[in-house]
Fold these 2 entries.
Entry 1:
Amino acid sequence: DAGVTQSPTHLIKTRGQQVTLRCSPISGHKSVSWYQQVLGQGPQFIFQYYEKEERGRGNFPDRFSARQFPNYSSELNVNALLLGDSALYLCASSPGLQGYTEAFFGQGTRLTVV
Amino acid sequence: EDKVVQSPLSLVVHEGDTVTLNCSYEVTNFRSLLWYKQEKKAPTFLFMLTSSGIEKKSGRLSSILDKKELFSILNITATQTGDSAVYLCAAQGLTEKLTFGTGTRLTIIP
């Protein structure tokens, strides 16, 4: 079975540009979460989506947005990029909201803003 | 605000040593604590703990949760160079959101 897949793996953007990151969860998983990991820090929660609805949002500016599609894949969009947005962006999938379920992470997208 | 603190921040030991990594948490409506190993990019799931005092084991790794004192430990015995990584602790409340600590960077010297 395929794990969580993210694309692209690496990305270089210029300040002010917009970027879209993509994530496909593990087959059968309906919940997708996005995290930002700055070098030397633990991942920080950005969004969680379940059944195409936003179920949680972290402390990030409105430049960050996301959505989930009927096949449960997800996109994270970041507008008006800043140098400080340079980070590893991780996607995690889990079965859903019921019970105790562990989250599995993709390889991440390394975003560099210059 | 939910908070997870890990210690030590870094640890250097010789192959064969035993290490203990610490994680304390303050999370509203705590539900579970998770440990991950991060070598390059993707954090790899190790354990999920939901009940106090019940040790979970996987090979040379083991972990236990104390819900009264709000902490967890991860033990690695007979360490190997392949254990070198950043170990992340994360706490979960009622939602799917994970609150992570900064991580412990473990380096195993051959």
Entry 2:
Amino acid sequence: EIVMTQSPPTLSVSPGERATLSCRASQSINNNLAWYQQKPGQAPRLLISGASTRATGIPARFSGSGSGTEFTLTISSLQSEDFAVYYCQQYNNWPPTFGQGTKVESK
Amino acid sequence: EVQLLESGGGLVQPGGSLRLSCAASGFTFSGYAMSWVRQAPGRGLEWVSAISGGGGTTSYADSVKGRFTISRDNSKNTLSLQMNSLRAEDTAIYYCAKAPTPYVSAAELDCWGQGTLVTVSS
């Protein structure tokens, strides 16, 4: 199965700053990558699919890029409600697999 | 509004069984594949099982194959997961989640329930 590796494990960012999260696949997954946000005690929420397409209702400050094996989620100006854990997921190959997550915390 | 509501979690002894349910509303249930994804305490996400919109195709993670059975009742808009021979490592929050297509193919999950906690312990 494809292994997804996220970095860094924890990202300390001040409100208003840019946050850049990385996700690497163990083999090419084309652009079949999704990003999810999970807040404590809540279910994951889909942010991005197709590596760069925002899901319905997701603010424009969230953007995704990349293809092949290297992907990035950027939060252009971090808001207080954006502190959470972010997971990437590949869906190019079966079974779908998730990264281990990046926790975005307040600096 | 799409809503998914899981139930059926609880404490069970190793080797025991449990049946989870997920009640769906706000969309044409039979038109979409559904999955179960779990999250062990303090850990990441692990896909468990998926079923096609019509229910004719299923798939399982190797870690649960032969022990778990996914099913759906499209007349009642309900997804189920029968879990047998439970192990301590099955302890997790179990989420049901909706795919954007009716097929059991790798895809993003565009709506998730709030989850139900399964604890396997003696």
